[in-house]
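Hi team, as promised in this morning's meeting, here are the two structures we talked about. I've kept the exact order from the run log so nobody has to guess. The first one is mostly here for context; it's the second one we should focus on when we meet again. Sequence first, then the predicted C-alpha cells.
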Amino acid sequence: MSEATTAKVVSQLIAAAPRELLEALLDTVADAIYLVDPDGRVEFLNPAALRVLGYDSPSELLGRISHPTIHYKRPDGSHFPASECPMLRPRVTGETVHVTEDWFVRRDGSMVPVAYSSAPLPMRGARGAVVAFRDISDQLAAEDHRRREAIDRTRLQSVEASRARIVAAADAERHRIGRDLHDGAQQRLVHLLMTLQRAGTQLTRDAEAAAAAATIDEAARDARAAIGELRDLVAGIHPAILTNRGLHAAIAALTVRTPVPVEIDVPPGRWPSAIEATAYFVVAEALTNVAKHAAPATHAAVRAVARDGELVVRVADDGPGGADLAGGTGLRGLEDRVAVAGGSLTVVSAPGSGTTVEARIPLATGVLP
C-alpha cells in the first residue's frame, strides 16, 4: 500500500487496538513507520524505520524531537526550519500530508531520499502524528538512468541526423558539380571539337595548310581525350544516369569499364535517391577495388535485392582476397556512409577465397532524407 494509506490505517489502528498488539504488528510492516507525540517527540518506530535511518536501537531515537533529529537540513546542506516542515502540519491542522520526494538525515549525517506520508493521530487530548516512509534511492537511480538514456538517445539521433544532412548536402553538391561540368565545360569542349573538325575541312592542300591540318587534328584528339576524361569525372562525382534511370542502369554503365566480366542482378525499380546513391557508391568502390587489387580475378557479380525492409547490395569477385575493411580509406568511407543511412557494411575476404562486400541499407528510416 502507499505511504498515505499506511499512515491513515496505522492512525486508525492506534485508536482501536491495544498498544502492545499494534507495536507487534508494526514490527512486521515493510514500510518504515514512526509515531510522534503532540510535542513532536518520537514515541515509537519499527525496525524498517531504524534500517532506513541507520540506527541500531529504538532507544537512540525514542524521546527525541523528530525534526531536529532527522529532518533539519536539505540535501544542499542548508538549514530546514521546522516552520516549513510539511511533516509537522498534521499535528496542527489535522490534515494528511503526502510528499513524493524529500530527504531524511541518517545517524551518520548522510542523507537518504524518501517518500513519506504524515497523518494526524489523536493523543492525550491533542494531536500527534504517524509518519510512514520508504527509501526511494533505487527509484531515483532508475529515473536518473532513464533520463540519461533519453538524453543519450536524443544526442545520438541528433548526431545521426546531422551526419545524414551532411551526406545529403554533399550528394546534392556532387550532383550540382556534375551537372555544371556536363552542361558547361563538357559542352564547350564538344563545341571546340566540332569547330576544329570544321576548320580542318576548310583548309587547302598546300604544305602550310597540311601542317595546320595536322595541328588541328592533334587538337581534336586532345579535345576528344579531354571529353572522355571529363565524362569519367562526371560519372565519378554523381552520374546523371543514376538520377535519370536508376540503380540498375547506373551499375550497368559502371561495369563497361571493369576489366573482368561482371554479372548483374539488380531489379529495374527505383528507390529513394539517397538509398540509390549509397548503393551505387558501394558498388563503384567495390568494382574499383576489383580492377586495382583483385588480379587475377576472372569474374565478378553485383546483386541487389529488397527484403525484410532492407536493400541488400552484394559485390563478389573470385580474386585473391585479403581485403581489409580497416586497412583502406575507400571501404572505411563506405562503411561510414552506409552507417549514416542506418545500415551496415561487411567485407568477407579470406586470402585465396575472393572478396564479398555486402551493404544492408534500410528502406524506411528516419535518418535518410
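And here is the second protein, the one for discussion:
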Amino acid sequence: MVMVPEYFKEFQKFWGEFLKTQEEMLRNLTSMFDFSLKFNVLRNDIAVFRAKVQSGGRISIPEADRQALNIKEGDVVKVIIVKEGGD
C-alpha cells in the first residue's frame, strides 16, 4: 500500500475546489455575456435617445425612432431608465 503524504491530499482538495470555482466563474461570465447581448445598442430593434421628463413623469419617443422601429400608438415597449447628470 502506497502512503500519500497529507500535504498532497490537501493540494488535491484545493485544486478540485479551484477548478470548481473557475468553472462557475466561466458559467457566470457566459451568462453575463448572453444577457448583455440583449442590450446591444447596435441592434436594429433598439433606439437610444435622450428625453426630458415632462409633467406626470411623461417622456416622448422621438418621431425618427418611432418610425425606425415602427412603433404605433398603443404598442407596448420596454423602457430602461439611466439618469444623466444633474440633481
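Starting points for discussion:
The CA atoms of residues 66 and 72 lie 7 Å apart.
Residues 6-68 form one domain.
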